[in-house]
Amino acid sequence: MQETIAAIATPFGEGAIALIRLSGPDAVEIAGRFFRARRPLAEAPPRTAQWGRMVDATGAVVDEVLATVFPAPASYTGETMVEITGHGGILVTRRLLGLLLEHGARLARGGEFTQRAFLNGKMDLTQAEAVMDLIRAQTDLALRAATEQLEGRLGERVRAIQDGLLDLLAHVEAFIDFPEEDIAPETGAALLARLDAARDGVERLLRTADQGRVLREGVRTVIYGEPNVGKSSLLNRLLGYERAIVSDRPGTTRDSIEEVINLRGIALRLVDTAGVRESQDEIEREGIARTLRHLERADLVLHLADASRPPPSPPPQPGHLLLLNKVDLGEAPGWSGREAVRLSCREGTGLDALADAIFARVMGGGATAGDFAIAINARHLACLKSARETLEAARAGLEGGLSPEFVAVDLRAALDAVGDIVGRLDTEDLLGRIFSTFCLGK
């Protein structure tokens, strides 16, 4: 029999209110032992908050609360649930939870409520993962992508690929069951067309992988350049306040400074680094060494140069986004015709052009925020790559006249890989790994 679980669903610490959730067959019975109100909790109208008092085993009042019953299956988990909202003190909330745990409930594991929702068919695995994306979203764009996934858009796309593969596999297995029926050229062409349609669907989802990583993790962005070109000034301009010390003296920044900003829905993890030059100062040399390490891990490098001075040697690398600062002082002839974002941190000009250039570099040329409502994560990426590989093997088999039995093996493998995205209920380790990253009470 399924156990009844309980957990505090609000963040740890003091607050106006705290929420405790119970889910399972005995949720109402366990909570009702300590709930005192006009009517017993078991008789309370569904999904209606009822005021009452929670008392301990001696009858002493622990807290005044609101209790709401969500009968199965019309609840978040698909099981009978009770939500108890009390005052947000640490001690009183723990005492309320302790009453429930001492009399039949078990403390829920991280993500166990959402895991039960998945196991009870309330959502597919992509929607379950979107719950955590929704909680962790740092920008409006990330929030929108998580909401779209929670509503099932990614699951719909995956199931469309599944349906196509099932039809394709059914046709191939029909030829296996009836070997006297040869695969006519026109039939083979139709099968290849269906296979290509499935592979195109997989490819379209794979193309969202980079955007998915950007939305979930942000972009590690290193501000790089020679000393005294305005790196700290740029950081301050992007942040909107004076975070880094700005000085005309070269070598002022000796350690890396990291901050996060929201740029048009993208979380930029900005790293202001020490200026790179030859130095005899031990502390400055360590700062430069850290700069080089940050460059190795960067998703995006903003290579800042002084427009009023000749180009440095060696010149900025092709993969870096070149920024020419101090254009208010004039532009040295060596920069003429160079593709770069021109700005002045002192006067605050060129920052909109910089935002455009960063968005285009991170998200792709003509992309807009709406293009990335569906964005796969690393687990989806691995499943889709596996599906693409087996679909390519199946296509090669069909074109090469391979026995239908071998083609069917590849198609089943592709179907399994795609099925793992939405969840096939046969891999306990996978589910444990996914839901262990959730916060307690969710």
Which helices and strands appear, and what pairs or packs with what?
Blueprint: E1 5-8, E2 15-23, H1 27-32, E3 35-36, E4 50-55, E5 61-70, E6 81-88, H2 90-102, E7 106-107, H3 112-119, H4 125-136, H5 140-150, H6 153-177, H7 185-206, H8 209-217, E8 219-225, H9 231-239, E9 257-263, E10 266-272, H10 282-297, E11 300-306, E12 321-325, E13 341-342, H11 351-363, H12 378-399, H13 404-422, H14 428-435
Parallel strand pairs: 1-7, 8-10, 8-11, 11-12, 12-13
Antiparallel strand pairs: 1-2, 2-6, 3-4, 4-5, 5-6, 9-10
Report what the structure shows.
The protein has 442 residues and is of the alpha/beta class. 44% of the residues lie in helices and 17% in strands. It has helices at 27-32, 90-102, 112-119, 125-136, 140-150, 153-177, 185-206, 209-217, 231-239, 282-297, 351-363, 378-399, 404-422, 428-435, and strands spanning 5-8, 15-23, 35-36, 50-55, 61-70, 81-88, 106-107, 219-225, 257-263, 266-272, 300-306, 321-325, 341-342. The strands form two sheets. Strands 3-4-5-6-2-1-7 form a seven-stranded mixed β-sheet. The protein has a six-stranded mixed β-sheet with strand order 9-10-8-11-12-13, with helices on both faces. The model is unreliable at 245-254 (pLDDT under 50).
Summary tags:
442 residues, alpha/beta, Gyrase A, domain 2, Four Helix Bundle (Hemerythrin (Met), subunit A), Rossmann fold, 3 domains, seven-stranded mixed sheet, six-stranded mixed sheet, 13 strands
